[in-house]
Amino acid sequence: MLPPDLRPGMADALLFDLGRVVIDIDFVKVASRWAAHAGGTTDDIAARFVRDEIYHQHERGAVSDAAFFANLRTQLGIDITDAQFLDGWNAIFVGPMPGIAPLLARAADKLPLYAFSNTNQPHIDHFSPRYADLLGHFREIFLSSSIGLRKPDAEAYAHVVQAIGVPAERIVFFDDLAENVDGARACGLKAVLVRSTDDVAAALEALDV
């Protein structure tokens, strides 16, 4: 559901999550690759995977890749190498979300675009060159492992709002997770829950962007 007050002229900047808003991702592909390396099943590995505090700290850049993979080795009960974990970890990326590229190109002609993603350095190293054209629409990209802050923490939104340099209420934020949308709204941003690119298109139409 779109915020009821989206209207032409009410935004000075647009802020986009990356995963499942700009770039499609699929964790099943990760679990499948790890299962192939470990000789297990995709379903078993996916069921054991937990986004625990080590995962969150890895996204804040506070835990090394080696420590993150060591935690996964214990959590998942599989004994594969760091290189094999990395191979599966980066298999998550599917490609651009269908239809998002022309929407971003059109919006960028009218308003400055920014991105804010909870992510980690291996993923950044992987997606940045592969989606350079798509990511080129953004004036700045805020990445949790680079800024040391992650959604939905209020400090993270405050950091991004300050860096963008416009009032929070003049920023429209797009994210696929309800907890991140709720966190953004609590910090004064206008926020759109994205279930498909159609939700982005509808919001941009309401904004006349």
TrEMBL record:
<keyword id="KW-0378">Hydrolase</keyword>
<dbReference type="InterPro" id="IPR006439">
    <property type="entry name" value="HAD-SF_hydro_IA"/>
</dbReference>
<dbReference type="InterPro" id="IPR023214">
    <property type="entry name" value="HAD_sf"/>
</dbReference>
<dbReference type="Pfam" id="PF00702">
    <property type="entry name" value="Hydrolase"/>
</dbReference>
<protein>
    <submittedName>
        <fullName>HAD-IA family hydrolase</fullName>
    </submittedName>
</protein>
<dbReference type="InterPro" id="IPR036412">
    <property type="entry name" value="HAD-like_sf"/>
</dbReference>
<dbReference type="InterPro" id="IPR023198">
    <property type="entry name" value="PGP-like_dom2"/>
</dbReference>
<dbReference type="GO" id="GO:0016787">
    <property type="term" value="F:hydrolase activity"/>
</dbReference>
